[in-house]
From TrEMBL:
Pyruvate binds at residues 49, 207. Gene3D superfamilies: Aldolase class I. InterPro entries: Aldolase_TIM, DapA-like, Schiff_base-form_aldolases_CS. It comes from the Bacteria. Signal peptide: none annotated. The active site is at 137 (proton donor/acceptor), 165 (schiff-base intermediate with substrate). Keywords: Lyase, Schiff base. GO terms for molecular function: 4-hydroxy-tetrahydrodipicolinate synthase activity. This is Dihydrodipicolinate synthase family protein. Belongs to the DapA family. It comes from Jiangella aurantiaca.
C-alpha cells in the first residue's frame, strides 16, 4: 500500500423537493454537512449519484455554484460531462467562470463513441476548462463507452488530463491504468468498498456515494489504515462493506438514509428508481440505528 494519505471524495446526491423541483437550499444544507468532515477531501457534485442526466444545464450550474459557495473551490469537483463535446466544453467554461478549479467529465453517452472521438471529446473539455484540474470519468456500464487502459492513458497524456475516475468493478483496471499514465496523474475508483485494494493497486483513493450517509464507517477505516492495526482494519472493512452493500445499489435508499439522518428533507429522485425491498430498508434502519447509538 502506498504511504500517501488516501483520498476520499463524496459523490453527493442532488436535493429535490417532493414534486421533483430542484431544492438548492437542500443542496446547500447537504454540502455544509459534508464540509464538516475533516477526512473528506472533496465533494463530487452533479455526477451520476447527483442525477446529472436529469438536470438542465442551468440547474447543474446552480448546483455547482452552491457547492462552491459552501465548500470553496478546493473541495468541489464539478462534473461537466455530457453526451456531446460541445456541451461539455461549454459547461466546463461556464463552471470555470463560477470559480470551479476542479472538474470531471464522464465520457459521451447514448451514442457509440470510438477512442478517437473520446480523444476529441476530452480535448474539448480540456480546452473549455482553461487552467482547471480535469478528471476523465469512465463508467462503461452506464455510458456504453469501453476504452482499454492503453487507450485511456494515451488520451490522458495527449489531452493533459490531471486524473481519472474509474467506475469499473474490481481493481485490475485501476492497476493497469496506474502503470500507464504519466507520473502525477491521480487514478480514483468509484468502488467505495475497495479503498484498501485500490490503494494496493496504486490508486489514490475512492469517490463514494455512500460516504455521505455512512461517514462513520469511512472515518473508522481511514483511522484503522493509518494505525496499521490489522484487527481494526478488518473490523472497519466489515463496517464499510455493510454500508456499501446496503446503500450503494439503491439511490432511493441512499436518499431515505439521508432524510433519516436529517441531511435531506425529501428522498425524491428524478431518475427512475425502484423502491427498495422492505428487508433492505430494515437492514438500513439497523445500520442507521447502530451509528446513532455509537455517536
Amino acid at each position: 500500500m502506498s504511504g500517501a494519505r488516501p483520498v476520499v471524495i463524496a459523490a453527493a446526491v442532488t436535493a429535490f423537493d417532493d414534486r421533483g423541483g430542484l431544492d438548492l437550499a437542500g443542496c446547500r444544507s447537504l454540502f455544509a454537512a459534508l464540509g464538516g468532515h475533516d477526512d473528506l477531501d472533496a465533494v463530487f457534485v452533479a455526477g451520476t449519484t447527483g442525477e446529472f442526466v436529469s438536470l438542465a444545464d442551468h440547474e447543474r450550474l446552480d448546483v455547482i455554484e452552491t457547492a462552491l459557495d459552501v465548500l470553496g473551490s478546493d473541495r468541489v469537483i464539478a462534473h461537466v460531462g455530457s453526451a456531446s463535446a460541445h456541451q461539455a466544453r461549454e459547461l466546463a467554461a461556464r463552471a470555470g467562470k463560477l470559480g470551479a478549479t476542479r472538474l470531471a467529465a464522464v465520457t459521451p453517452y447514448y451514442s457509440a463513441t470510438s477512442p478517437a472521438q473520446a480523444h476529441e471529446y476530452f480535448a474539448a473539455v480540456r480546452d473549455g476548462a482553461g487552467d482547471a484540474e480535469v478528471f476523465a470519468y469512465l463508467f462503461p456500464d452506464r455510458t456504453g463507452v469501453h476504452l482499454t487502459p492503453d487507450q485511456v492513458a494515451g488520451i490522458v497524456t495527449a489531452t493533459g488530463m490531471d486524473g481519472v475516475k474509474v467506475s469499473i468493478p474490481g481493481v485490475d483496471y485501476v492497476r493497469e491504468l496506474v502503470a500507464l499514465v504519466p507520473p502525477g496523474v491521480s487514478v480514483l475508483s468509484g468502488n467505495d468498498g475497495l479503498l484498501e485494494a485500490v490503494l494496493d493497486a496504486g490508486g489514490a483513493g475512492v469517490v463514494s456515494g455512500v460516504y455521505q450517509v455512512a461517514a462513520e464507517a469511512f472515518h473508522a477505516q481511514l483511522t484503522a489504515l493509518a494505525s496499521g492495526d490489522d484487527d481494526s482494519r478488518r473490523a472497519a472493512q466489515r463496517a464499510v462493506d455493510a454500508a456499501v452493500s446496503t446503500f450503494g445499489p439503491h439511490l432511493t435508499l441512499l436518499k431515505l438514509g439521508l432524510v433519516r439522518r436529517g441531511m435531506l428533507l425529501s428522498a425524491r429522485c428524478r431518475i427512475p428508481a425502484a423502491p427498495p425491498a422492505a428487508a433492505l430498508v430494515a437492514d438500513a434502519e439497523r445500520l442507521l440505528d447502530s451509528w446513532s447509538r455509537a455517536s
